[in-house]
Amino acid sequence: MENLDDAVAKVFYLIEASVDGGPFVPLFRGTPWLPADVENNSYVKAKSGTTGVYKLKHPHSTVLNQDSRFSDGSGPDESANPLVIADGDGKPAYSTATWSNYGPGDYSSYYETGNSMGTASEAESFLVDDEGLVLQNNYPDINAGYYGAASDTTPFDNDADGTETSTDVTLRYSFELLRPNRSWAESRSGLGGGATKEELAAEIPGIEASDIVDNHSEIVMNGEDGQAQFANPDSVSYAEMRSNYDSHVGLILTTASFQVTANNEPADSGVTGQSNANSE
Q1: How far apart are the first and last CA of the chain?
Q2: Which of 12, 28, 121, 218 suits 237 as a labelling partner, its CA being 20 to 30 A distant?
Q3: Domain presence at residue 200
């Protein structure tokens, strides 16, 4: 991001997967806050402000595991794994869950729009403990993840001896750039709730008082300078992100594709080997 009119202090990102040409299914959502000014270490380079960056220097799970909340003793203290696209448990049966059990959520807001999500801990408690769903990519420690796999392993099966089959997998990454809110500014500045926005901004490089919103973070430059305008800038839905990424500087969408090959070796009835005549 470069030379935006509003400063960025938070990044929302959603990772989805399409297996074998099927629909895109959410795998993981995260909302990392950026540092005040610049953080540049062995794992991540991040900078808040009107010109900044959020760059992972290692695989996603490796960077996540640097978060101290995974080992703060408050539970569940489970480390992050590489994202599961497909496994034996498969895609959770989201649509059959009793959504009235899940705090502020419902099926549409959780799976289709991404609004009113509640916390990752709530998802683990209500959807895993109560509903028995397997959310392979949910991490309550860092309040991120929320979702399970996109598929079971059926699309990758190859039962024909002596053949090789390939299955297409496409990952879709959606990003939203968000303005600082007052809570972030108070934390990063070290000032308390009694400080004015001007006082907060004066302590944080690259942040102006007009950048800071009072409540939930909002998308940058909402309706400004010809950018798309959202009725609810603090809760842009998944569909709105996909529909407007080419008309709003605060939205980025990209995809990556690869193939998974299953090679079924032909059956062989011959027996080879060596016997140890001295075995006892």
Answers
A1: 71
A2: 121
A3: no
